[in-house]
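[recover] target loaded
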């Protein structure tokens, strides 16, 4: 698997890393200083979306599955990196790019079918297929919509990243 984040260094348009951090982190900006890279969170993740990324640090990969907010990654971690389960797991929301089939006038609603909080809705428009819209207030950032998208046009990123 090629890590494209390293290749970005050599491109003219440097793209910021918008990958979603692990849920419930107390100090995301100090994560690489505090994480011991033990891999316990990777083993504990029930949907296996936490993988070892650059330098062995865990990261979330929504192309595999969704986050169920089970809290097992936090419970397995020997470090004190995380907030209590009662707090919000992260400030992350989904975004749909122009590669979306519906935006190409092809009927597809896979993302809204899988969206449990019903944050993705399709609005009817004259002369084209229904167009997707995301209610960011309802979006939990779980990433369920990412893995089911046939064109990989949905990305979940941290709010303000």
């Amino acid at each position: 698997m090629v890590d494209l984040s390293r290749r970005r260094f050599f491109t003219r348009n440097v793209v910021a890393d918008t990958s979603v951090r692990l849920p419930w982190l107390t100090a995301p900006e100090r994560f690489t200083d505090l994480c011991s890279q033990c891999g316990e969170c990777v083993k504990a993740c029930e949907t296996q979306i936490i993988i070892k990324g650059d330098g062995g640090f865990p990261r979330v990969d929504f192309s595999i599955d969704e986050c169920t907010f089970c809290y097992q990654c936090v419970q397995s971690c020997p470090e004190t990196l995380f907030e209590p389960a009662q707090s919000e797991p992260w400030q992350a929301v989904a975004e749909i790019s122009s590669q979306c089939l519906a935006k190409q006038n092809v009927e597809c609603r896979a993302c809204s079918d899988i969206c449990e909080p019903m944050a993705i809705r399709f609005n009817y428009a004259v002369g084209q297929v229904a167009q997707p819209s995301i209610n960011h207030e309802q979006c939990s950032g779980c990433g369920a919509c990412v893995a089911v998208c046939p064109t990989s046009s949905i990305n979940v990123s941290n709010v303000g990243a």
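[recover] notes: The mean pLDDT is 87.
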